[in-house]
Amino acid sequence: KKILVAYFSHTGNTRQLAAQIQQALQCDIFEIIPEKPYPNDYDSCVNQAKTEIKADYKPALKTHLENMDAYDVIFVGSPCWWHTIAPPVASFLAENNFHGKSIAPFMTHEGSGLGVSMEDIQKRCPGAKVLQGLPRRGCKVKNAGEEVSAWLKKLEMIK
């Protein structure tokens, strides 16, 4: 199976988790980058995210995946914003065809876990199989190696 790790990271936590998954799987990695960065100020970012998610806004992306057809399994990473995927991840899902593919979500959060992200991903990607996701507290991503390995074994991606 050809595997891709695709992720959006605002503070770097999801990037760290994505790198750990990519290293364990020795697969391709792709960063989802919005054209317009989110504010660094916490309150401004939270307010913008809330407004965008409520409106189902999909921001324009700076990066675009050219060869989605090449992949069978896509690990999709996002911070959990308002109990779901961040808007740039919604944009990524909207501009690619996931029919017949497996999607393994991973989310960084500070208490909300996966929220409703798995259901939201399934709604946005009809015809895809959404595998069990991995939630990880953002403040604990540095030490996620064992949890990542256990999750990848459970998904039968590694032995």
Q: How does this model look, in words?
A:
The chain has helices at about 15-25, 40-55, 85-95, 115-125, 145-155; strands at about 5, 30, 75-80, 100-110, 130, 135. It is α/β, with parallel strands linked by helices. Strands 1, 2, 3, 4, 5 and 6 form a six-stranded parallel beta sheet that branches. Strand 3 (about 75-80), helix 3 (about 85-95) and strand 4 (about 100-110) form a beta-alpha-beta unit. It is globular, with a radius of gyration of 14 Å. About 40% of the residues are buried. The mean pLDDT is about 95.
The count of DSSP E runs of length 2 or more, i.e. the number of strands, is 6
Q: Rg to the nearest angstrom?
A: 14 Å
Instruction: Kindly estimate the percentage of residues that lie in beta strands according to DSSP.
Output: 15-25%
User: What percentage of residues falls in helices of 4 or more residues?
Assistant: 25-40%
> Unreliable segments (pLDDT under 50, ≥5 consecutive)?
none
Mean pLDDT: 96
Largest sheet: 6 strands, parallel
Helical run tally: 5
Structural class: alpha/beta
* C-alpha end-to-end distance: 14 Å
Q: Give the SSE order as H and E letters.
A: EHEHEHEHEEH
Assign an overall shape: globular
Pick out its properties:
globular; 159 residues; alpha/beta; six-stranded parallel β-sheet
Short description, anyone?
The chain is 33% helix and 19% strand.
